[in-house]
Amino acid sequence: MKVYRFPQGGITFEDSTVPPKNAGVIAFLPVVSVIPLIQHTGGRASPIVGAGDHVREGMLIGRGQGPGSANIHASVPGTVLHTVSWETAEGMNNEALVIRLGGGFEKLGKEEKAFHWEDLKPFALQQLIAEYGVVEMEGSGQPLADILGPIYSRADDDLTTLVVRCVFDDPWLVADYVLCRERFKAVVEGSVIISRSVQIQHIVYAVSHRELDLGAMLLEESKNYDIPASLLPVSCRYPQKNRRELELSLRSYEKREALNLGSFLIMGPATLAAVHDAVKLKKPILDRYVAVGGSAVKTPRVMRVRIGTRLRDLFAECGGFVEEPQKIILGSPLSGRRAADPDEPVIKTSYAAAALLEPQTGGTVMRNCIVCGECRQVCPVALDPEALFKAAKAFPEDVPKTVADCHGCGCCDLVCPSRLPLSTVIQDAGRRK
Ligand code: SF4
Ligand code: SF4
């Protein structure tokens, strides 16, 4: 079977401190939840409850305000204690409702009622997806309503293919992998719902070639629906999951198979399972699968965690720390962001939490470039990171225009023996261009 991959560069990334691929463990319910009003790309949701109010599990507590913003729901029942605000490590402000657990659960432990969605019109499906606050959970948190609207309004002859991205090029994506296996029926039905909501006629399951049995499961399940689906085996080389690299593989597949795929709507498994829950179960995003690990963590695990659970509670459930971590990252150490505080909560886009000791952070001491050429070898866009870095340092106002081609994959940083912050400097220069 042909395995598709992007043409050049990239790295094979392994990490022994990620949790094993076992079944997801359901995390304890947090006594105190911190539910941020920004879990998406746009402005904060406007709170509709305040201190002293009782909230039910799944109740709307923050209403999205315009493009980029999304509805926020209570992940647990309880009483709103107060609001907190904090500055993220990147200098952004966020605000959250703090809820003390209390009262009965309406969904947890109850039999889930399935609603018939098959006869709903595309716009009604889109409305349910927006009402239950579904965002792109594998990315920056862009509300799906903002993504689907323009696709729905496209010209009748503009073809779009839904690409279900089950690409595990980074071991820290293990939570998505476990979700994919445990909820494959929801992932497939969510794919069909999305396709119906914007009238897509073809689904491609892009699956890492090492997980072809997972691809076979998805494809077999898709036979229960009338939208044609196919399987695209892709490489596990990082950054295969990136939009640019995945599109290159898709175009090569399209050409080889003499298909016409049009443009691509790319969605990950967590988002599609959330679409299923919103439309079929009328349930907002109450929890998500998170990989908790890193060299500082005693027992790394994949856990199904309520939104609003604080990182310190997650790490405690993994047996705590072997030593105080030097850095806590939300997401993969390769591409995630530094947590400002161990009290930061899990949000809709948190797929991993890594607590790292000094050796795993790579240290902070930078040395001079030794002109080894490693960074050039791994750049998937064929840039010369060494030259761009030096140019951006020497002539910040006059950098080559190719800096704009850098998509920040970080491969160059990872291989640089001098620990130079290549991608950060190149991307900063690109933004100034
Ligand atoms: S971060 Fe930019 S320069 Fe570095 S390897 Fe990736 S694309 Fe190339
Ligand atoms: S990998 Fe680092 S040390 Fe080697 S050429 Fe590139 S910038 Fe210089």
What can you tell me about this protein's structure?
- The chain is α/β, with parallel strands linked by helices and 433 residues long.
- Among the domains are: 159 residues, NADH-ubiquinone oxidoreductase 51kDa subunit (Rossmann fold); 59 residues, no CATH class.
- It has 13 helices and 17 strands.
- The protein has a six-stranded mixed sheet, with helices on both faces.
- Strand 13 and strand 14 form a beta hairpin.
- Helix 4 crosses helix 5.
- The longest helix is centred in the middle third of the chain and has 14 residues.
- One iron/sulfur cluster binds next to helix 10 and helix 11.
Q: Tell me the structural class.
A: alpha/beta
Task: Label the overall shape.
Answer: globular
Strand fraction: 15-25%
N- to C-terminal separation? Answer: 43 Å
Which regions have little confidence, pLDDT < 50, spanning 5+ residues?
none
* Main pleated-sheet profile: 6 strands, mixed
**Helix/strand order, N-terminal first:** EEEEEEEEHHEHHEHEHEHEEHEEEHHHHH
User: Which ions, cofactors or small ligands are bound in this entry?
Assistant: iron/sulfur cluster
Q: Write the CATH homologous superfamily of the domain at 122-280.
A: NADH-ubiquinone oxidoreductase 51kDa subunit
In total, how many beta strands? 17
SS summary, helix count: 13
By CATH reckoning, the class of the domain at 122-280 would read Alpha Beta
What fold name stands as the CATH topology of the domain at 122-280? Rossmann fold
**Residue share in helix:** 25-40%
CATH architecture annotation of the domain at 122-280:
3-Layer(aba) Sandwich
